[in-house]
């Protein structure tokens, strides 16, 4: 665990399968009006949007030189070819995405993504200059058995297999206990710190302490303006991956201003 002040917090809104391209424009405009330069100096702000929204968001961000970053919620492990329905790293890169979420629990649960596929997707992201937001976290059964740390670290190991130190230096890891996602049952700050701290420790083992100290580790799962400050006060929590609350632009702005809550 190190001083958080060396790491710029990252607040990322994961819109999941919400907001069509017109709603996306309206939402990003609201964020642009709500966020000040002071906010952007203190916190990096990103939105992870449906593929169909990316061009609209890119146009707004580039046209108005907004300081909001954007990205996708998934990427194919393949770069091109006969993979119906997939969207590739080169396609996301061409749309100037900064981030891509990989291994979200909803993809693991509903689309059968395992650690090997998550690992292949992380490598695909790096091949094309995209920064992965690697999602890890345990389900309720694992939590009840007290195995949350071992389970989550195994996911980190799997996802970062054969990922170089140069690549891993830029990864963002989102610890999202599945039982806290969309349930309103946020993890306690101590729960979040336990696993986020363990993830940083594992990065030090896999790479080195300097790298581990530089990587940003987010918490995700029922984050709202009312609970974000306590979670962000934990030494190894460097931001939040926000689902439901990020669909309300005013609420997301309050989350970005977690220091005022
Ligand atoms: O990616 C975001 C997480 O799944 C959290 O979603 P939530 O804030 O709606 O619980």
TrEMBL record:
Active site: 104 (electrophile), 176 (proton acceptor)
Record: residues binding substrate: 14-16, 182, 222, 243-244
CDD domains: TIM
Main location: cytoplasm
UniProt entry keywords in alphabetical sequence: Cytoplasm, Gluconeogenesis, Glycolysis, Isomerase
Family: Belongs to the triosephosphate isomerase family.
Record protein name field: Triosephosphate isomerase
């Amino acid at each position: 665990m190190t001083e958080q002040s060396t790491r710029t917090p990252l607040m990322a809104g994961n819109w999941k399968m919400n907001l069509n391209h017109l709603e996306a424009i309206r939402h990003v405009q609201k964020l642009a009006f709500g966020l000040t330069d002071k906010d952007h100096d203190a916190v990096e702000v990103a939105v992870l949007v449906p593929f169909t929204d990316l061009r609209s968001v890119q146009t707004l961000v580039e046209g108005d030189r907004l300081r909001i970053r954007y990205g996708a919620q998934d990427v194919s492990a393949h770069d091109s070819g006969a993979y119906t329905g997939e969207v590739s790293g080169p396609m996301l890169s061409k749309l100037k995405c900064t981030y891509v979420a990989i291994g979200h629990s909803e993809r693991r649960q509903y689309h059968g993504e395992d650690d090997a596929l998550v690992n292949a997707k992380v490598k695909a992201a790096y091949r094309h200059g995209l920064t992965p937001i690697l999602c890890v976290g345990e389900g309720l059964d694992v939590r009840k058995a007290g195995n949350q740390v071992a389970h989550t670290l195994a996911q980190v190991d799997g996802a970062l297999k054969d990922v170089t130190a140069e690549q891993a230096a830029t990864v963002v890891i989102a610890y999202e206990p599945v039982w806290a996602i969309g349930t309103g049952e946020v993890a306690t700050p101590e729960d979040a710190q336990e696993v986020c701290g363990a993830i940083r420790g594992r990065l030090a083992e896999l790479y080195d302490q300097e790298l581990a100290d530089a990587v940003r580790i987010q918490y995700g799962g029922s984050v709202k303006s009312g609970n974000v400050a306590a979670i962000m006060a934990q030494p190894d929590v460097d931001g939040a991956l926000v689902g439901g609350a990020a669909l309300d632009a005013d609420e997301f702005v309050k989350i970005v201003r977690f220091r005022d809550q």
